[in-house]
Amino acid sequence: MRQTGIFFVVLSLLSSISAAAQSELPQLPVVDVTRVQEFYRLSAAVQDEVWAGWSAVPAPLLLVTDRGEFLTHHPSPPSEFKKVSQDWHVRKRQFPVDFQATFPAFGPPSVVVIGEPANTLSQTSTPWLFTVMHEHFHQLQNAQPGYFAAVEALGLSNGDKTGMWMLNYPFPYEKTEVAQAFGWLRDLLLDVLAEQNADRFAKLAKEYLAQRHKFFGLVSEKDRKYFSFQLWQEGIARYTEVRSAEIAGRFTPAAEFAALADYEPLEHYAERARKKTLEELKHANLTTWKRTVVYSFGAAEGFLLDRFNPRWKEEYFKKLLSLDSYFEP
Questions:
Q1: Is the pTM of this model over 0.85?
Q2: 240 and 286 part of one domain
């Protein structure tokens, strides 16, 4: 009996030490937990309506804060993370607090790595929610068989293993004839999308295909591959962000999320999401905006595909890294 008593005293002591150590770890504010939980609620409700089978893809998320980096929904958290609650693990901060990306940070599956709304371009909770949906779509892209091999096969990295070439590739953004042709193509794309008459839409769409072909004919094969890849990857991620918002207009948010001080009603955000992207496209300047034009431009091409090729998504993951085959004149 005496040995048993000692055993329970030791066990109690160890439990107390463990609890004390855990209490000393950084804790995630309730407001951040609320936002992340709402992302998982929303994605479960809308993702398969946007892309068939999207819900089958793991969705681990690393929230970057001043207090540390908090990992959730990861199948096997790396050893440097310490458990702070049922499905949250924390480590010291390594990424900038305004970070926003998706990649296999700890090996597969890819992880959404993102800062709190106030530290990112989102600024507030509702836009942040759909930015995470955008990043979650990158998880779907990354999960496709052969995706990483296909990216490597583009031959565009020039030995860069960090992935920064995707941001810094020397596309001829400032070349006068290329920038001018992009401006014409941008305006034509906006005209096609604005056209409601079926006959005029068909005529403008045919003209768009021809002008798109001419635009890509102005650059080298490597440059074409790069820009096409960016439209496929980032442009369609923005398209997905917008479509997720539009579908979420019918979604009832959790009371805790709707009670946040910076909450914008989902139906209001849904009404302006597409308009916001098209307004951005109106001002897209290849020379000064450089790579960032692909977000609004690629999203607009997704809107166009919805109209003249409604089943285009069935082939999207079979035609990795390029939308070009959809736009052959």
A1: yes
A2: yes
